[in-house]
Write a structure and sequence with these properties.
Length: about 70
Amino acid sequence: MAKKRFIAGATCPSCSATDTMRWWQEHHVEVVECVQCGHTDRRSPMSAEEKQPVAQQQDAQVIGIFKPQ
Ligand SMILES: [Zn+2]
């Protein structure tokens, strides 16, 4: 059995309830479920990695320009 963990502060995109979302991994796929309305969402960790590094690099460049001095 996969461990299901609640996501603190997460809002359900279906019923807009907060702190009702829990997630677990199923065959290397992240599954998110809302215990309030039963909404489920699946996402591949690989597709998420393609988008995030670009945004993180842009943030790092902005921080490098504005030095707190
Ligand atoms: Zn919901």
